[in-house]
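Sample 1 of the test manifest.
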Amino acid sequence: MTDPAPRRRGRPPRAGAAQGPGTRDRILEAAREEFSERGYAKVSVRGIAKSAGVDPALVHHYFGTKEQVFEAAITDAFAPALTGADALAAGPPEAVGERLTRFILGIWENPATRAPLLAIVRSAVSYETAAAVFRRLVAAQLLGRIVRQLDLPDAELRAELAAAQLVGIAMLRYVIKVEPLASVTAEEIIARVAPVVQGHLTGFGDGAPGTKP
Amino acid sequence: MTDPAPRRRGRPPRAGAAQGPGTRDRILEAAREEFSERGYAKVSVRGIAKSAGVDPALVHHYFGTKEQVFEAAITDAFAPALTGADALAAGPPEAVGERLTRFILGIWENPATRAPLLAIVRSAVSYETAAAVFRRLVAAQLLGRIVRQLDLPDAELRAELAAAQLVGIAMLRYVIKVEPLASVTAEEIIARVAPVVQGHLTGFGDGAPGTKP
């Protein structure tokens, strides 16, 4: 997930050693920290470069504009999620709700993956540029993989309503931290929420919500 | 909801013309705009005063600290929501899910109430101080009114899971704007989401999610 090599924060940017394997990852990690700590608007390519110990030109070289660095940082943070999404879609369809719920809660429960996710959510909520990146990557790629497995005409809307339940849980449990939702076990939440996610995706059963005549 | 009488804490500043009926409201409106446009961290009491055309001492006089101005601005923005929440709880319990869903979507669909709500969400997501205010006001007051009507031992958690579905819809439809969720009619969403909100609150029926043995 992250580059194990130590970051050379504060290293003179001229040094040619700043290039080579690991540099790209180091810039990405610095970008993620900058976006996380300072928020999208206050981050600059120069600041990312300084934090990564490289010349700003190198950031431009690898990624381009600030928006592009942000997109790369999100993509990187979501790489395991996207890999996982393939596995999610691959299992039995009658349990996709539980798999998706476990998977999303798993990302949020793990402090290592929660931090970049929080950074993304905060940026996406406050800046249209960041929201656009979020839409392209998360909505299109993560949900897209699930949608393709659902052989239903309204699969996209179904996937988004299911995602909305999980996004709301994440907001109230991990970001706003309302009680008791912030303190109950993940299993308690999975037991109550997975059937709702499943219901949105494949229907709630006869006469129940989510079914179409 | 809010105290109509000005608080007498501190001495009124010299600018006599700035005082009088409407001054408090003008400060509140300026505060809401400042928090909305600049985000919690970048707003200052001085900036709010300038935007409202009053002396900073008058802001302190009416509200106190920045956090207190923020809380007052949220309280003010949520006043109709809290009034509505009483009506929500008063109707037949088997339709509380639809009433709550209609009510929350109604607030978000109306541009006049959407703007302050967006400001609150953005601040609450990014700043712990703002999140604490959000917890106190929205979670405790809005959900509290619904919880008191549910004669169930786990009513708080139920209300939060229902709220999570609606918070997620708001995030994806109005903030991040994912498609098709951002473009379908409110009625389409209500038809699919109200039964889920109802299910969280009062149970999904025999053997379905949300019921307790």
